[in-house]
Amino acid sequence: MKRKFDCKRIQILDDWSLRTKLYILFIFCVLIPVLATNAVFYQSIKGQIEAKEQSRLNEMQQRIRFNLRNSLDNSLYVSNFLYTDATLNRFMESKYRNQEDYYFAYYDMLSGNNLVRYYYSYQQVNQVTFYVDNDTFVNGGNFIKLNDDIRKSEWYQALMNTDDQMLIYSYFDKQQAEMSQTQGGRKVSIIRKLNYFGKQQVEKVLKVDLDYAFINKSFKNEGAGGKIYIVSDDRIIFSNDAQMNQARKPFKRMSSMEPDASQSIESIPVVSENWQIIVRGERLDFLTEMIDSRSNLLLLVILNLLVPTLLIWLISRSLVDRVGRIARHLDQVKQERFEVITEPAGKDEIGSLTHSYNMMVVKIRNLIEIVFKGQVERQALELSKKQAELKALQSQVNPHFMFNTLETIRMRSLIKDEHETSDIIQKLALLLRQTINWGNDLVTVEDEIRFVESYLVIQQYRFGDKLQFVIDVADPDILEMRIPKLTVLTFVENACIHGIEGGSNDGVVEVSFQKQHEQLHILIRDTGVGMEEDKLALLRNMMLDPSLERLSELSSIGVMNAFIRLRMYFDERVHVDIVSERYKGTTICIKIPLVQAS
């Protein structure tokens, strides 16, 4: 039972095409294992990368919190010391009789107290300004009189509207943005009421402006591989994002940005507010760390997928193409077309199968050529001979009586001294005997020349001086070669009847035998009326596919009959060329291989 099941399973596999089997091997043995391995590898690497990225973001967030807290603490340090400075408080509380008294007091305060100039040494502090509601003050340096315009300002209103004595406030100074090309208009300031020493006679406000450009630059340097946003009340105060960090434009809103689920948010208390530190890491792509080393990634892809795919594609193409080629040629064998596979076969099993197929086709073709075609040609030759003999028998009426009659006429001509007539009758009798006797169809060139000469003498007796002829043999060895009987005579007869007899002028018939390029060249040329173009084209067309059945298409069958007999004896290696020009004559060249003619 198990063996039967195994045989059935193998038979199912045998029914699949070779291409399908190779595809299945590729999918289940290469593609799926590689994808599964890469998926496991990806999950492992992805987890490590995410953990590493989260650790990096946490470290970045800690550094940002430390730097931000350091910058704010330094500014608060300046603000606290100025807030508790008694010398400054007395200077701002005092009334001055004139500007001269004010300047003396101002310089005395500076000479005895360097706090203001000292705190400018902190890089995080950009500007320290005292706003004093004292009419005896002169605007200049770090001291400005508190007037109605200042009370209407955004930052002052924010201070007055809060219960806190100190706040940190960020705003956009449009006037400064228009006046300064370098600093821009964004400001972050620590603002407080100067009421440390109890009830005061004048209103005093201290504003410490942070160095926005310096602090923001530190975030730019920190933000490699992620985006940093310091947010206060939905306003992005500091950032390393160039789109959000344009100092000559108002602060951007965090709500205007698309949310990011992977961002990290931390709140820190800053004076009177809670600022948010938002860090957004770069999105993780497939094998992010491998991308940092492109050579490793490229090597991994080549080893895992491209090399196996390429090898399987090349092997499958080698197998499928050659098997398909053999299948196509076998289909042609079904249609009795035996063609050899000429493409490179290879040295494997399929190559051996191809060589075996070629040997089989060659043997089949040789078998058909030798047995089948040889038999057909022999049958055609016998049939042609029988038909010729039948025509000869049908054309003769008591040949013995006719030959005896011709001999009687010849003897009577000799008695009357009519020797010319006697010679003509003798040659005519010779031709008749050879025409009737088909026992041996192959004759020597010498015998064929004797027939041709006898015929031309008879025609010359008939036409008189109108017909002249020349017979030339270039090599004596040619006389011993053999050709089908009366083939040359047929072409000569055609030249006399259709060429010379049809014209009004004298004509010449030339017959020559010579050797050229391992061939026997037989040339029959006449100077008669030539052939019409349509008749010449029909004759040439029939010579391309000669057959006895097509003889009825020609009015004169002699030339075609002779050509068929030549092909029967010498196969397709005999060539007959016909050249004819109207009123100038016709030339027929017969080319027979010397090996066969010998």
Automatic annotation (TrEMBL):
SUPFAM superfamilies referenced in this protein's UniProt entry, alphabetically: ATPase domain of HSP90 chaperone/DNA topoisomerase II/histidine kinase, HAMP domain-like
Protein origin, superkingdom: Bacteria
Membrane-crossing residue ranges in chain numbering: 21-42, 297-315
Mode of membrane association: Multi-pass membrane protein
Subcellular location: Cell membrane
All residue ranges annotated as the HAMP domain in the record: 317-369
Gene Ontology cellular-component terms listed: plasma membrane
Keyword vocabulary terms for this entry: Cell membrane, Kinase, Membrane, Phosphoprotein, Transferase, Transmembrane, Transmembrane helix
Location (main, coarse): membrane
GO MF term set: phosphorelay sensor kinase activity
Secretion signal, residue range per the UniProt entry: none
PANTHER family: SENSOR HISTIDINE KINASE YPDA (PTHR34220)
Protein name, UniProt field: Sensor histidine kinase
